[in-house]
Design a protein that fits this description.
Number of helices: 8
CATH architecture of the largest domain: 3-Layer(aba) Sandwich
Bound molecules: S-adenosylmethionine
Radius of gyration: 16 Å
Strand order of the largest sheet: 3-2-1-4-5-7-6
Largest sheet: 7 strands, mixed
CATH class of the largest domain: Alpha Beta
CATH superfamily of the largest domain: Vaccinia Virus protein VP39
Number of strands: 7
Length: 223
């Protein structure tokens, strides 16, 4: 069996864990399959990362901008952004196995192992310190949900951007990730002066599975 076949088989298991919305088991899957993930990413048919990088190029013009790659995994986004000239990036992920692979690529200044949920703070991150957070393939059922957005915004500078992808499948699988829930929450946050949605780009997650890349601008001081 080829690596890609192994990986696609493992993805069926991932989807079962995601359907259970079992975040710990999903992170364990990434730990177990980190090597397979990295070896097969380019041939698996993923697209979401390219649109996420396009949005970053559109909104983050300064190549010295402080960027946090949120759910950085093995460094797919860090690698693409480095090729575009960005030089000041940190990585955060809950999977040590994925981060270990990313660390060997010398893409990031700092790597943080942390689980994004709804706790009040994220260990080791300084509030109001990033110009942008970029998150590809991480907002998903069994992973990160919209309700973490206010927490994440705390670590952005005022005017900074949170750029993230969500697949239509995840929007359909969890009531916490529906399009309606996104609209409701972001309307409330906009009314409260917390942030504003500045862009929505259609893309594909894997092959022809639709997805979206949203860009949200932080309107608070971040502290
Ligand atoms: C599909 S991979 C994407 C990795 C990378 N961004 C890319 O584009 O290749 C999802 C990553 O998000 C991480 N992740 C999922 N849920 C998380 C959470 N709640 N907190 C932190 N990391 C999480 C996983 O460990 C995994 O590395």
């Amino acid at each position: 069996m080829s690596n890609l076949e192994d990986y696609l088989k493992e993805r069926v298991r991932l989807h079962d864990l995601m359907a259970k919305e079992s975040v710990d088991e999903v992170i364990q899957w990434y730990d177990d399959c980190a090597t397979l993930y990295d070896q097969n990413f380019n041939s698996a048919g993923f697209q979401f990362h390219l649109t996420t990088v396009e949005a970053t190029l559109e909104f983050v013009k300064d190549k010295d901008a402080a960027i946090l790659d949120l759910g950085a995994g093995t460094g797919t986004i860090g690698d693409l952004l480095k090729k575009e000239g960005y030089s000041n990036m940190d990585a955060l992920d809950a999977s040590q196995g994925m981060l270990d692979i990313a660390s060997k690529k010398n893409l990031y200044k700092n790597t943080f192992r942390s689980l994004i949920g709804t706790s009040e703070s994220i260990e080791n991150l300084a509030e109001g310190s990033y110009d942008a957070m970029v998150s590809a393939g991480v907002f998903a059922h069994g992973a990160v949900y919209y309700e973490s957005i206010p927490l994440l915004l705390k670590y952005l500078k005022k005017g900074g951007y949170l750029i993230f992808s969500v697949s239509l499948l995840s929007m359909q699988k969890s009531p916490r990730l529906t399009r309606e829930q996104f609209t409701k929450l972001t309307r409330d946050w906009e009314k409260a002066g917390v942030c504003r949605v500045v862009s929505e780009k259609p893309t594909f997650h894997i092959n022809k599975e639709p997805a979206f890349v949203f860009t949200i601008q932080n309107c608070t001081d971040g502290k």
